[in-house]
Structures are given as structure tokens and as C-alpha cells.
Amino acid sequence: MKPDINDKAYVEALQKGDASAFDRLFGKYSGRLYAFGLKYLRSKEDAEGLVQTVFLKVWDNRLQLRNDTSFQSYLFTIAYNDLCNIFRKRSTERMFKEKLALEFSGMENADTRTEFKSILERVDAIIEQLPDTQRVVFRKSRFEGMTTKEIAAELHLSPGTVDNYISAALKFIRTRMEKENMALLLFGSLWIF
User: What is the CATH number of the domain that holds 183?
Assistant: First the structure.
């Protein structure tokens, strides 16, 4: 697709940090992106979030924008990739919750359910003891289903750093679980490792 003449001028200005050019591009395309997001996400809040995320990426990557390609295509490519990530995350969360619900519902008595709930709370408390960035990386990896590369890009870290955070988090969690008791270790290994 050929670049729009007006978009080309706005992109050139945007590359120089011109906020008014950014505002014009936002005004021109935000409605279309919103409609695109709403069609697939079926939530006004999620569609608004998609628009904000896409334009934040445009601003953050303004120096890498190209004048020889369509800005509209660039925007919708970002939106498409973000939608794929959203659906992958939702799928991972849904599978985790379904598996957890199945385990929870299969428990015969109230004592077992209470113990199970207590273990879940304890695992969460152990995870909360991780340093902030390590905890965020670990949750994105294990609970949101994000890849090392996706986490690195989102948090502006190197993939090696992300892997190091995950390894350190797992080591910490294993050590803490071993100190708690073996049942907790066995349970945690099913869900986390």
C-alpha cells in the first residue's frame, strides 16, 4: 500500500518529536483502530486500551518509522499483533483457571478445599516476596503465557535478563516451598514449574 501524502509529512514531523503531528495522526486513525479493536475484543475498555497501546508504541518507536510504507498499514499491523497477544494471554489464563477449577471442584470435602485454598494463598504469598521486576517477569511468564522475547520487549530488558529473572524466581520459590513442606512443593510443581 502506498503511503498517504499527508501521513508522510506527519510521519517526518513525528520522527523529529513533533507532538502536534502525533495528535493529527491520532485524530485521523484512533477511531478506525477503536472500531477494529471493538469488533474483536467486544469491550469498549479493551478497545480503548488497544488504541492507547498502539499509539504508545508509535511514539516510542517514532525514530524507526518509515516514510516509504503506509502508516495505516503499520498501525493495523501493530494492532493485529497486539490482538494476537491479548487472545493468547486470555487463552492461557482461561486454561489455567479451568484446570484450577477442575482440581478445586473435584475435592470431596470442605477440609480438603480449605487446605487447597490455603496452599494457593501461600504460593501467591511466596511469589509476592520476589523483587518487583522479578515478580512481574515471573507472572508474565507463568500466568500470562508470554514468551521471553515478548516480556523482554514489553519491559525493555534483554532476553537473557528475562531468563535470569525467571531462573532466580524459580530457585527462590522452590527453596521457600521446600522450607514450608513437601505437600506445598508437590502442589507448586504442578502449577508453576
Answer: 1.10.10.10
Q: Which set of grid coordinates corresponds to residue 158?
A: 534483554
Q: What is the pLDDT of residue 101?
A: 66
Residue 180 has pLDDT above 80, yes or no: no
> Is the predicted pLDDT of residue 161 greater than 60, yes or no?
yes
Q: Are 85 and 147 in contact (CB under 8 A)?
A: no
End-to-end CA distance of the chain: 46
pTM over 0.70: no
Positive or negative, the CA dihedral 169, 172, 175, 181 is negative
- Are the C-beta atoms of residues 72 and 29 closer than 8 Å to each other? yes
- Same domain assignment for residues 123 and 171: yes
- If one counts the domains in the chain, the total is 2
Average pLDDT over residues 35-64: 91
CA distance 176 to 66: 50
Rounded CA gap, 73 and 33, in Å? 11
Are 135 and 128 in contact by the 8 Å Cβ rule? The answer is yes
Host domain of residue 40: 5-88
